[in-house]
Amino acid sequence: MKGLYCKSAVSDAEPKFVIQETTLPDALINHQVRVQVKACGLSPLDLKLLSDVGDQRDLIPVGREVAGVILQVGPKVTSFHPEDEVVGILPLDAPCSGLCDIIDIDEHYLVQKPEKLSSVCVAAALRDGLCAYTALHTHARMAAGQTVLVMDGASPFGLMCVQLAGYHGAKVLTTSHSPDTHAFLEQLRPSVARVIPVYTGSDMLPLVLEETGGLGVDIVVDSGVRLQEENDRETDEDKLLPHKHDIISALGVGGHWVTSHQDLQLDPPDCRLLHLKSASISFLNPEVWTASSAQQGRYLHILKDIVEKMSAGVLRPQPQEALPLYEATVAMETVQRRMKQKAVIQL
């Protein structure tokens, strides 16, 4: 049985992804279930996070968002039965790759997959749905009638945020990074209040203040920020990211900023402005749910709600082309270099 693994990078070298043979134990223990994987989503691997939590393995399993069918259950399993269709995200310390034909996983990381929801669709979008739910509900405590600014609303994560906020009655503003994504966002239903074309050089802040009557937004969700003014080393993609001061300035009184930027640095003037607004910041780390079992029940409730909303059409991720297993190595290298934000492998 083959799976995809990452060889730990030496110094600044790019990580290397390899297909390796692996085996499963003969018997399941306690709450484990054996799952035949139908589809697996590939997301960028955060090697720094793995190092921070003490994961020093030479071969790190790759591919954690899985959808499949249960073949066998352990002696203490109560939630599932053989032939149940399930979805879930493997924990950080999972011993096997999600691209193996058959995997063993604890039942507490899985939820039932609605019958009409395809395995490819849910494997491709489950992580982004979890991130959006965590950002808007867990961190920002979003409520109906609030105004939400989502950066890069056409990205897989941004699209989930836009749709989730709109479903819960929030007024949604978002930014677009190209003419095609701008047209796509303007055609969304339910529609967003305003799409700001930052790719044209439009200044985001005055447009946000114009749309909110000068009051600012209640919630900002970013997909990365610029810490400094433009410099020669920035890529074209970096130049489309919002500056941290613009985000803080766009917040209203009591506003909340949820950031994906791990190394955010705030200067004293930034902190002073946040203090004047009585605003707050949260750091979005989607791995926190599987890294700790303190809120396992809440995590499973979130996963169940996400797949039900996807099945009902409330959350409609952009279709992903399913790739065969033999293309997994090249696909993961592309995803890791951020040339593509998501890939899904069909087994």
Instruction: Write down the secondary-structure element order.
Output: EEEHEEEEEHEHEHEHEHHEHEHHEHE
Biggest pleated sheet? 7 strands, mixed
The coarse silhouette is: globular
- Provide the helix percentage: 25-40%
Give a description of the structure:
The structure is a single chain. With 347 residues, this protein is an alpha/beta fold. It has eleven helices and 16 strands. Strands 3, 5, 6, 7, 8, 15 and 16 form a seven-stranded mixed sheet that branches. It has a six-stranded parallel sheet with strand order 11-10-9-12-13-14, with helices on both faces. The chain has a three-stranded antiparallel sheet with strand order 2-1-4, with helices on one face. Helix 4 links the parallel strand 10 (171-176) and strand 11 (194-197). It starts with a strand and ends with a strand. The model has no long low-confidence stretch (mean pLDDT 88).
Gist?
With 347 residues, the chain is α/β, with parallel strands linked by helices.
Describe how the helices and strands are arranged:
Blueprint (H helix, E strand, L loop, with lengths): L1 E6 L8 E6 L10 E11 L4 H6 L6 E3 L3 E9 L11 E5 L12 E5 L3 E3 L6 H21 L7 E4 L5 H12 L3 E6 L2 H8 L7 E4 L6 H8 L5 E5 L14 H4 L4 H7 E9 L8 H10 L2 E4 L4 H4 L4 H17 L9 E2 L4 H9 L6 E4 L1
Parallel strand pairs: 9-10, 9-12, 10-11, 12-13, 13-14, 15-16
Antiparallel strand pairs: 1-2, 1-4, 3-5, 3-7, 3-16, 5-6, 6-8
Helix pairs in contact: 2-3, 2-10, 5-7
